[in-house]
Amino acid sequence: MALERGCTVVDGTVGAGGHSELFCAELGAEGLLIGLDRDAEILGHALKRLFDQPRNGGPRIELRHAAHAELESVLTELGLPHVDRVFLDLGVSSLQLDSPERGFSFMRDAPLDMRMDPTRDRIPASDWLMRVRKDELERVLRDYGGERFAPRIASAIVEARRMHPIERTSQLAELCVRATPGRFRHGRIHAATRSFQAIRIAVNDELGHLERGLEAAWESLCVGGRLVVLSFHSLEDRIVKSFLKDRTRERTRSPERATEAEVASNSRSRSAKLRFGVKPSESGALS
After folding, report:
1. What pLDDT digit, counting tens, does each position of 42-79 carry?
2. Of 87, 100, 251, 273, which has the fewest Cβ atoms less than 10 A away?
3. Would the CA dihedral through 222, 10, 229, 265 be positive or negative?
4. Cα-flanking dihedrals φ and ψ of residue 248, to 5°?
């Protein structure tokens, strides 16, 4: 992030506050940290983490229940014309995955919800599965999940919903497993993993939020400001890479990857890719 004391930093996906806590240690009393998250429940964890610790001359902190695509309206509310840094961590919070009632995981039976923000998002995954066309479902499973058996799984879901609603995570997981050919059911990755990921991305319009969030972040940066994005999915990384190339007019850099030590301490970091871009002046952007 290349932080300096006195910077104004936006953590656009504050989650439980882990990254923000590190940022605060660098900003000093003159700095400002703005934390956003579309998940109000997760934001509560960040609130506790960032405000329950001794401040020791730390920065001013402003947390808001908002998606990163809403950054510009948050800055207007705070009376800020621009910021110095924006950080986006696109990974799903382990707190979300570990909360059975949220319905993100097939590890425990729960209502099939998957919404990042149940207070504002449109419909839970159970309703989405009842409404989606078969061809669209197949596309989502293939494109968002990389599911090689997308046609079989989509057919199984459509056939099952004719008889009864698919309302539980266990129901969807079982359908995915049964639709997967026998010799592929018990590999390193659970047979339902890719389908759950794909459906979650679709239900939450995660790629649309990312595109709008990148645009809002870039517009909010001062000249010389830096946008840093940590992605965990190839589609996300492709969008980020293209966006930064178009805005900076620079040769595309290779993303930074987790070290072996980082992967050993956190297996989820294996797929992480970190990219950043520096906002040029108007003349620099056209040169």
Report:
1. 898 899 898 876 556 789 999 999 999 999 999 999 99
2. 251
3. positive
4. -95, -20
Give the separation between CA 30 and CA 12, rounded to whole angstroms. Answer: 20
Give the torsion through C-alpha atoms of 10, 13, 18, 24, to 10 deg: 10
Question: Could you say which DSSP state residue 252 is in?
Answer: P
Q: How many beta carbons lie within 10 A of that of residue 284, not counting itself? A: 13
List alpha helices for the chain, DSSP H.
Answer: 18-27, 40-51, 71-78, 94-97, 125-131, 134-145, 150-161, 169-179, 193-203, 206-220, 234-248, 260-265, 282-286
Q: In this predicted model, what pLDDT tens digit does every residue of 220-248 receive, in sequence order?
A: 999 999 999 999 999 999 999 999 999 99
Q: The tokens of 72 are what?
A: 């510009």
How many alpha carbons fall within 13 Å on the CB side of residue 229? Answer: 27
Give residues with Cβ within 8 angstroms of 183, minimum separation 6.
Answer: none
Phi, psi of 202 (to 5 degrees): -70, -45
> Greater confidence, 184 or 158?
158
User: For 133, left (φ over 0), alpha (ψ -120 to 50), or beta?
Assistant: beta
| Spatial contact of 34 and 10, defined as CB atoms under 8 Å apart | yes
pLDDT above 80 (res 251): no
Q: What is the rounded distance in angstroms from the CA atom of residue 251 to the CA atom of residue 271?
A: 23
Q: What size, in residues, is the chain?
A: 287
Give 95-148 as a DSSP string.
HHHT-GGG---SSS--B----S-TTTSS--HHHHHHHS-HHHHHHHHHHHH--T
